Amino acid sequence: MPVQPGATAPLERVITAMAAQQWPLGGRLHAELAGHIPSYRVVPRELLDEIWHRHFQRALTVLRAGTVPAPEDFDEADVARDRAARGVPLGDGLRAFRRALSAIRDLFIAEATRRGLDPVLVVDRTTCLWELADVASLRIAAVHRQAETASALLDAGRRAGFLRGLLHGTLSTAEIHSGAAIYGLDPSRPYRAIRAVPNGDAAPDTLERSLESRGRGHGRGALLTVLDETVAGVVEAKPETGDLQVTAGLGPPADLTTVHRSFRAAGRLLEAARAYSLRGVYDLGDLSWRVAVVAEPELAELLLDRYLRPLQAEGEFGTLIEESVRAYLQKGRRIREVARSAHVHVNTVRYRLRRFEELTGTSLDAPDTAVELSWALAARELRTSPRRPA
């Protein structure tokens, strides 16, 4: 509402009286915010004074003109970035802003009443201050969320950068200790590197959050991120995955300065677990020598030629021989148990085993045969198991 002729001078006297009380009112407001909004205690007083001056002068401009600026005219990006960086929640920021506008509104009503300002004008300008609070609150909320998003992306980038350097062994000891302090790791404790991929439709970032939450607890630490389409990081203990759709390799314990070696081992274990189409988290104790089967394809070919391919000439009977030999090794060379599980006579099993020795020119009693045959059977399993896509 435009100011009527004759009302300009009284309104200006009200505004002048309000301007004289800007800093005393700001001091009381600061004490109130510090007492009721703890997150604001981390914001330096000089910054609060600067923002208070901005809000106060904007309110005086609205009182004088009787119009509220458009949302795009509110430059709150610097304030939002500062509050987000200091960890001040959006709700606290809006509470503080609305309390400041309420204090300015109460001051205006008091001075307008004291100086006999036209009641119609008082109502109009009070309404303008409420509109200012609404428009500014929406703008503050929008830029605060943008600042929080940008801050989260920056933190995620720093976190990923720290883990990448830690896991690839490119950080100095000082950088490791500095990053550990930031991300809650204890350099005095051993950690195990982990590399994981979703074993289903889950996105890597979703898997990251699930694994990290399961890696923490009972005083244990964990720090993970998404690196090169896999979830990678460090944990203090083997995560309990439950029904989580994941395939992961877990390296041996190491201190943070040498955890890059654990990371290399975790990569080999992940490759082996995926090759066998396994679900869960696997370390060297789980996979043992089977890791080498994946890593040594030339040796696997040699052993397949020696122990299993000669059976192919026997056709379907060759398949039965292979099944009996596999069961013979799995059941600790106890022929009766092999026969019982296959529902055949003991002599049938003995004949199949003897035929295997004839076709391969080996003896099942020889230790080397047991080792090499187990290797060949594991390699056969790799050939017949469907490999999950990366």
Q: How many separate helices? A: 16
- Total count of strands: 5
Portion of residues in beta strands equals 5-15%
Please state the overall shape, judged from the principal axes of the Cα atoms: rod-shaped
Q: Structural class, from helix and strand content?
A: alpha+beta
Structure description:
With 390 residues, the protein is an alpha+beta fold. Helix content is 64%, strand content 8%. The chain is built from 16 helices and 5 strands. A 5-stranded mixed beta sheet has the order 2-3-1-4-5, sandwiched between helices. Helix 9 links the parallel strand 4 and strand 5. Helix 5 packs antiparallel against helix 6 (119-168) and helix 12 crosses helix 16. The longest helix is centred in the middle third of the chain and has 50 residues, at 119-168. It starts with 7 loop residues before the first helix and ends in a 6-residue tail after the last helix.
Q: Which short descriptors sum up this protein?
A:
5 strands, single chain, alpha+beta, disordered C terminus
How is the topology of this model organized?
Layout: H1 8-20, H2 22-36, H3 45-65, H4 77-85, H5 90-114, H6 119-168, H7 173-183, E1 191-198, H8 204-215, E2 222-227, E3 230-235, E4 246-254, H9 259-275, E5 280-282, H10 284-287, H11 290-295, H12 297-307, H13 316-330, H14 335-342, H15 346-360, H16 367-384
Parallel strand pairs: 4-5
Antiparallel strand pairs: 1-3, 1-4, 2-3
Helix pairs in contact: 1-3, 1-5, 2-3, 2-5, 4-6, 5-6, 12-16, 13-15, 14-15
Brief sketch in words of this structure:
With 390 residues, the chain is an alpha+beta fold. The protein is built from 16 helices and five strands.
